[in-house]
Amino acid sequence: MSIAIEVRNATRAFRQSTGVFSTDRTIRAVDGVSFAVETGSCLGIVGESGCGKSTLARLILGLLPVSSGEILVEGQRLADMNRRERARLIQPVFQDPFSSLNPRRRIRDIVAMPLQAQGIAARDQASRVEEMLIRVGLPGSIADRLPAQLSGGQRQRVAIARALVLRPRIVVCDEPTSALDVSVQAQILNLLDELRRDLGLTYIFISHNLAVVEHISDRVAVMYLGRMVEQASTDDLFAAPSHPYTKALLASVLTPEPGLGIPDVGLGDLYPDPANVPPGCRFHPRCPVAEARCAIEVPLPRDLNSHQIECLLAG
Amino acid sequence: MHDAPALLDVEGLRVRFNPKIEAIRGVSLRVERGQTHCVVGESGCGKSVSALAVMGLLARGAKRHAAHMRFDGQDILGLSERDLQKLRGDRMAMIFQEPMTSLNPAYTVGSQMAEVLVRHRRVSKQQGLDRAAELLAKVGITAPGMRLAQYPHQLSGGLRQRVMIAMALMCDPELLIADEPTTALDVTVQAQILRLLRDLQQELGLAILLITHDLGVVARIAHKVSVMYAGEVVESASATDLFANPRHPYTRGLLACVPVPGTIKRGEPLGSIPGTVPRIADGFVGCGFRDRCVHAMPACAISVPSRDDGAGHRYLCHLQ
Asked: Would the CB atoms of A49 and B198 count as touching at under 8 Å?
């Protein structure tokens, strides 16, 4: 299998000003993350808010440079490419279709924008836009409307059409269904899945919703405070989560099964603060099984029954 | 089952913002003491508007009608704004989805919490602060003394929602209306907040009207459920009955859309409901769901019968 995208030890630090008289704090939103995604597969990335998953999406899209480490797309360094080259290979679909579409542009022009930016002739643009709108299940009559005249689900289809009109190799979906109602969410997930199979796309699919990730991904990575604490195939991860954090995340999903009650995930009231990363294992202050050494020793990535995990105790 | 009067009893609620469109078309809800009644539906179905109508918090210009609306046996439909204000925050309290926008950023947690008690119970500020500290501890906040002096922006999302809950409890309300209280929170924090609400209910005998779009939340916390679609309650039943035996095609469709971890077969499409929610203008007859319904038949355009299985499971549909 060929590798569509490889991330090697990527780190992204931000400086945060804390006031005129205090020194700036450094936040490592992504802190030494490595993974590879096979061509035509989907990697799901899950984690709580503030874990760095959206920063990681921006690094992969080339919207932010890495502070250290490197990202390879089909063997080429992302940092060596210019904007147009990147845009032909990687495209985004964002969470909120209400703010990611220009409210003053007609749908036709919104979807044509990437073609225009690549300098493709106007008459070719029109036919490709039309073809793409049909491909994502929108009626042709929609092309002359404005975003405000569409429903949330239709807008997200427009965002998908815009992402795919250049025939990219990789699509980074950052919470693409989180702003949608469940019935529409299901429609969009089914569409994304179908497009991936038909067009041979590679997805990086970021979500806080584990069930959605399980549905669409071949492999899942769990992020916690800037690190990937567990990676495994979707089946392995959901059948036998190994990291205590993954276990807690899975346990906190509320399935529509009455009588099961509300789970006690045992994480306590300490919320993770990316500006104040605990020593040792970053998860130890919330970990229900932490031991004394977890506060001192940093867990290195290791393989455990086909999972890659960062935990001193699991296994 | 209508023996003891419900704490909140709403019958035939109608709300209109626009002269041509009725947003709420005859909603009936009963919330029993010490129980959780969930109202579930997708955006625009009227679930939040129903809650605001009960609290008398609709925007100016909105028109509200109902056959009756009673709180603890007392009519609240005809109450003056002054009398309603006495009730709100005191015997009935409300919490919203996004705690950051419902807390005042310019005041400390302590001063906005204490104000509730100062207003309703005419106690001193210090007594208000003491009660606030006591409640912060009750909702699981460590070092409540320190939190009282902090501003909302200094708290995490989960902590802010706990503060909102504590604030709603200041006057020992009998009814808590919670509009999407965990939607903006991470799943791990959602579980903690829901456990907290359940524990408080058991301890204080609180009745909760919980509005959500999340069927997972409904299944785990509700005693009774009302499913709303296009301004109507299309199905209502006990939670166990609704999930075991959903009758309305919309409820069934909604349940099929929810991916459940562990039962997912990749490569198979999820269930989905085609189309979008219609706008229902005046003069509309028949079933509001018929354009999206796989079982729609000619009769659905003419009328929609209300069915009752005799054990409290009601739904609006021609299907038996």
From this structure: no
